[in-house]
UniProtKB/TrEMBL annotation:
Coiled coil: none
Domain Ketoreductase: 4-210
Name listed for the protein in its UniProt record: Short-chain dehydrogenase/reductase
Family in the record: Belongs to the short-chain dehydrogenases/reductases (SDR) family.
Classification via InterPro entries: KR_dom (IPR057326), NAD(P)-bd_dom_sf (IPR036291), Sc_DH/Rdtase_CS (IPR020904), SDR_fam (IPR002347)
Length: 248
């Protein structure tokens, strides 16, 4: 896998950024996808280059198919694809289902579900031995919300992550004989800006007392699990979904 390219959607901040740094440290050339924060994406690229790694930043809203196709074309120019990390994801403001607009729900599904499936489509076209590819790995970011359902917070988000779990199982089986492993991580409460983006910056810390380990997680603790799944140490792991959640 050394010298192969990994595409990380939402690699500019949070878990994606930590995964970009960890993957670069393991020899991957990193395509750092981002939605709008070019400065954060460039900072991630600079941090990788400062450690003698290789990375490029590519603007890609995963809610837009044309952006996804352009992201993978940029990756093709950078090198041979070895892995995809479907990390980009959004939450919404705290709301009950009977308060949600159709636009909110459609955007949630477009980014978290359709975007991940379309990115995986582009990755499978390049990785699958059925298409003459070299094989590789696809890692999806789910959430423990898929199991908890997130009532009175964001059931639409939880449902989008439930879809990611089913997608991980099904795609893993579909391409298991074609050199591709597929797995997902279900993070628990991780200290990133996603909570502020949902209008509740203190959410993770406020709920940390409900975590069996009594603390929030760090983005690096998710990244470590992702790069392990990407490595040959996980060579017999596919269609697997791993909780990294302090027991939550
Ligand atoms: P974050 O800190 O909010 O960072 C989000 C990243 O995704 C940024 O790089 C952002 O790019 C990018 N992004 C947002 N919307 C996008 C779009 N439409 N297209 C492409 N990229 C987009 O999030 P995080 O906490 O690291 O979460 C990463 C993943 O882990 C998500 O799938 C999330 O659901 C999952 N997760 C997180 C937690 C947690 O507690 N943090 C728990 C469970 C699961 P810009 O910088 O350009 O805005």
């Amino acid at each position: 896998m050394n010298d192969r390219v990994v595409v990380i959607t939402g690699g500019s901040r949070g878990i994606g950024r930590a995964t970009a740094l960890a993957a670069a440290a393991r020899g991957f050339k990193v395509v750092v996808g981002y939605a709008s924060n070019a400065e954060a994406a460039q900072e991630t690229v600079s941090a990788i280059e400062a450690s003698n790694g290789r990375a490029i930043a590519v603007k890609c809203d995963v809610g837009d198919e044309a952006d996804i196709i352009a992201l993978f074309e940029a990756a093709d120019k950078f090198g041979t694809l070895g892995a995809l990390v479907n990390n980009a994801g959004i939450v919404g403001p705290t709301a009950r289902v009977d308060e949600m607009s159709a636009e909110r729900i459609q955007r949630m599904m477009a980014v978290n579900v359709t975007g991940s499936i379309l990115c995986a489509r582009e990755a499978v076209k390049r990785l699958s031995t059925r298409h003459g590819g070299p094989g590789g790995v696809i890692i999806n970011l789910s959430s423990v919300a898929a199991k908890l359902g997130s009532p009175n917070t964001y059931v639409d988000y939880a449902a989008s992550k439930g879809a990611i779990d089913s997608f991980t199982i099904g795609l893993g089986h579909e391409v298991a004989g074609e050199g591709i492993r597929v797995a997902a991580i279900r993070p628990g409460l991780i200290d990133t800006e996603i909570h502020a983006s949902g209008g509740d910056p203190d959410r993770a810390h406020r709920l940390s007392g409900h975590v069996p380990m009594q603390r929030v997680g760090r983005a690096e603790e998710i990244a470590n699990a992702v790069v392990w799944l990407m490595s040959d140490e996980a060579s017999y792991v596919t269609s697997a979904i791993i909780d990294v959640s302090g027991g939550r």
